[in-house]
Inverse folding.
């Protein structure tokens, strides 16, 4: 019975994906804006959501920005008390896009920005502010004109691998 339930769920998901894909037009074009909302899968800290915004300036080049947050409660101060460490990051990014495969957008580029800490003096000593400079390698798969999923390899100050939902505005 359990196998039949999983089989039914699988066919419903495939059917929904196929129906969404039939309405889809192009994966990337000049003037579009993509918003990625995701979380880190290989985190440096415990909780690390991020938001990226990419604006297509041509059919295969985009510029944009990234904002990320990282928080963990594993830091112990001198009195052995647990404290929350909060790190934020802001960055500028540029990417080239490869869109020859239907429904897929592959991209690679660079990102630079700044990671900073908000907390008391002890936390700032343990978690220094730093300049971010990293390469980006990612992909997006679109179910429809405005909804998709993404996965990305890059260091955004908090995680090396991110995944989540993509919204085309």
């Amino acid at each position: 019975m359990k196998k039949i339930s999983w089989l039914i769920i699988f066919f419903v998901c495939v059917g929904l994906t196929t129906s969404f894909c039939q309405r889809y037009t192009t994966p990337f074009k000049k003037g579009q804006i993509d918003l990625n909302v995701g979380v880190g899968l290989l985190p440096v800290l415990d909780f690390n959501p991020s938001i990226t915004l990419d604006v297509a300036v041509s059919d295969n080049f985009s510029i944009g920005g990234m904002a990320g947050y990282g928080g963990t409660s594993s830091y112990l101060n001198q009195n052995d008390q647990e404290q929350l460490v909060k790190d934020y990051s802001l960055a500028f990014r540029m990417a080239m896009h490869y869109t020859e495969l239907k429904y897929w957008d592959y991209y690679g580029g660079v990102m630079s920005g700044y990671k900073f800490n908000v907390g008391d003096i002890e936390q700032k000593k343990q978690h220094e502010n730093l300049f971010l400079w990293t390469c980006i390698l990612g992909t997006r798969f679109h179910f429809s004109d405005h909804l998709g999923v993404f996965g990305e390899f890059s260091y955004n100050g908090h995680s090396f691998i991110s995944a989540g939902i993509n919204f085309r505005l």
